[in-house]
Amino acid sequence: METQNHSPATEQRERRLLIVDDSEEFCSAMQRAFERRGYAVRAAQSANQARQVAKDWPPEFAVVDLRLPGAVGLSLIPEIKAANPAVRLIVLTGYASIATAIEAIKLGATHYLTKPVEVDAIEVAFGLTGGDESVAPAELHPSVDRLAWEYIQRVLAENGGNISATARALRMHRRTLQRKLGKFPSRR
Hints:
The structure is a single chain. By secondary structure, the protein is an alpha/beta fold. It folds into two domains: about 15-125, Rossmann fold, CATH 3.40.50.2300; about 145-180, Arc Repressor Mutant, subunit A (Orthogonal Bundle), CATH 1.10.10. It is built from nine helices and seven strands; from the N terminus they run αβαβαβββαβαβαααα. The chain has helices at about 10, 25-35, 45-55, 75-85, 100-105, 120-125, 145-160, 165-170, 175-180, and strands at about 15-20, 40-45, 60-65, 65-70, 70, 90-95, 110-115. Helix 3 runs parallel beside helix 4, helix 7 (about 145-160) crosses helix 8 and helix 8 (about 165-170) crosses helix 9.
């Protein structure tokens, strides 16, 4: 009687995951966590690295940070989707805004999550195919500070993450804009 040696990795088809974040520590932690869950993982710390990985190794899943050096993560969504139109792509950010969330979904992201985020939440988001109708609408109106933050984020996204162009569009000094971007957004 012949025995066959099947490891879980050979019985389960490879699930390719691309992680794009400028933090090497974040990428390493996520890579280890997802590899333990059976994913084949590649990490990129820049938009250019991500483009090359997606082209050479089309992922089934992707986690893309919204802010990258010299680029906005939103610009990567169409490129990663071109490599694999069925990719399940999650946008992560520590600077959430309604404008960037809407734009991410319009560009083809599966979901939009705010940092810090657990691996479980990312994996659940990969499986989502629709919205959650049980989410209650916000009852409070956003504060002026929150509205200003979201407007700045929208203009920043429209200018491809370019701080100087955004400052000109907002008629604001570049350093003032950088200070505003360095602050955390108002919760409400």
